[in-house]
Every structure is written in structure tokens, then in C-alpha cells.
Predict the structure.
Amino acid sequence: MVLESTMICVDDSDWMRNGDFLPSRLQAQEDAVNVICRAKQQESPENTFGVSTLTSGKVLVTLTNQMGKVTTRLHHVQPDGTLNFVVGVRIAQLALRHRKSKNSKMRIVAFVGSPLVESDGEMKKLAMRLKKENVSIDIVNFGELDANTEKLETFIKSVNGSKADAGSHLVTVPATTSQLSDALMTSPIIGASGNYSAGAPGGGGHGDFDFGVDPSQDPELAMALRVSMEEERNRRQADQRPDDSTAAAPAAAAPAPAEGDASSGGDLATQLSQFGGMSEDEELMLALQMSMETQGADSAGAGGDTAMDSDAALAQELMAQDVAAAAAAPEPMDDEEYDDDGLAAALADPDVLRSVLSTLPGVDMQSESIQQVLSETAAEFEAREGDEKDGEDAASDEEL
């Protein structure tokens, strides 16, 4: 994208009081200048534009990218004096030399609505100077077509030279056109900056921009949306054309989870059938093992989306090791201090066992196997409590 610095020269002579362009030639120019500035800004937020007059050659707005400055200064322009085309264009050319980005192209857009008083020699000399310094010029010819059209056509041909399309244009707008800005929207002046239809006087909608954002009001957001839309389009096109190896991989890996599920299901049935002849510690270890295997099978079937968190898995493994160590620990000697409320005795309590299992990740307390272990532990605990009570009562009777 080529950056461009544009100076817009408005005709503010006394001829601008005429009302052949509604509401007047001067106000029609004001609307057209706003359209051109917004089109340049829509093309690139880094494009700059300024405004000067063709009567006194006064620079109203230096090169900027802020529409507010242009609109404010145009409201203060009043018709006065006679048109001085050559002087006005030369001053605009000097203003372009002070552009910030020396890499941006220079362009002048001049509105001519008054009879030209310059001779053919002066016009040709100005055209050669513009061509030498690579300054393009677009002229909007309106109002006085009979007096200016032939002279301006010769001027544009001199600026372009032998090139068919050197970048300079002449747009002749007849008085039958109700709005000057409407004629510019279909002209090369706006067409060179892209299709413009947003924010124009009398226009509606946002043209080809379908994001619900006015590019003329927020060009940076509009550009970001365009880039995002292009990236999304490229991503979808890439998804629609997957590689053969990528497409074949899921098909080859699909049968694996079913085999794992059948294997784990058979092991689980075998383990559940062994619950009856196990001790309490062995039953607890088996319950933990089944919980870990069930979670592993679920993770494989879901493609890894529901895999157990590494910290939780490590905590469960450490808990299983503690339980195994407690179960395998030898009976304490008579001279060793032994705590009756140790881990083995605590796990014999069904309430303690239920509390421990509920804190383990992945253990389903409502499963049939866990409920069976808890019920058997509770029954054995009650029987042990009853035996201990009977023993205490017998000892008391012997003492008496």
C-alpha cells in the first residue's frame, strides 16, 4: 500500500456564491472535500491531507490525518476575491515538500469553479514543474465548464505526458448534478483510493464494509477487522484441505480406546469378585487401584481431554503408598510404644475410611464397589466392638 500526502485547493472566489450546486458552490465544495479526506483516510490511516485556498494561496490546514481540523477550518471559509490558479497550486506544492514521510507520494486536488485568467503558457509551465517534481494533480472542473474545460484538458495532458495513466485526472461535473460529492464518488479521484461510500453526505450504510463499523470514523479498527477476517478465511481454507497423513491418523487410532475399555472392564469384574476373601487393607488398596484404572480408561476414551491433573495423580499415588506401607508394617514388639489410634486402627473405622476415600480424586463414593467395602468394614467394626465389650464384661466378672 502506497502512502500519499494530499493538498486540497478550494476555490473561494466570489463565484462560489452561485447556487447552481446546492446549497451553494462553496458548501458543495466543503462536502466534497470531506468525502475526499475520508476516502484517503479509509485507504490508509497514515495518509495525510491538508487544505489551502486558490485565491490568496493561504494554507488553512497543514498536512494532518485528523478530519476534525479540516472540517473546522472549512466552516470559516467565505467567498472573496478572484481565482489565482497558478499561485494556489504552487503554494500547495511547497506545502507538500514539508510532509513528514518523504516516501509518500505527493498529490494535489484542485477545485476550479471560476473562470481561469492564466494564459496557456503559464499553465504549461506549471504543468512541467509538477511533472518534474513527480506531483500528481486531480482537478474538479465545475460551474464554468465552457471557459475552463479545454484549457484544463490541455493542462492535464501536459502533466501526464506520454503516459496513458500517469496519475493525474480531470473530472468535469455538469451543473445538472445535484451534489458535487456524489459525482466524485464514481470518479478516479475517489476510485484511486478504493470504493468509498461510508460517511458521505446523502449516502447510507457502510458500503462493502460489513462489520457494522464506519471506516471513516475509526480507520484503525476497520483495518484490524480486515486483517482478522483475512486470517480467519485463510485458516478455514487450510482446514478444508487437510493433509492425507493428518486425515489417516484419527482413523488408525480409533479402535484403540474400545480395546482398552474391554480389557479394563474384564479386570474390574475379576477384582470385584475377590472382595469377599480380602482383609480391610487389601480391599482399600484394591479400591484405590480400581479408581486409578477407571480414570486412566476415561482419559484414553476422551482423547486426553479429561486426563487427571498431575498434582492430583501424584497425591493419590502417595496416599496409596501410605496405605500399603501401613498394611505391610510388622506387628510392633512388646517393648515398642504402639499407638492404638494409628493408621491401621483408624482405617478400621468405617467413618474414617469414608472420609479418606472422599478426599481422593477420582473416587466415586456412590459406586457399588465402594459402598460394599464401606458396609463390610462397618459390619466388621461393629463385631469387633462387640467382642471387645464382651471381653471387658468377662474380665469385670472375674475380678468380682
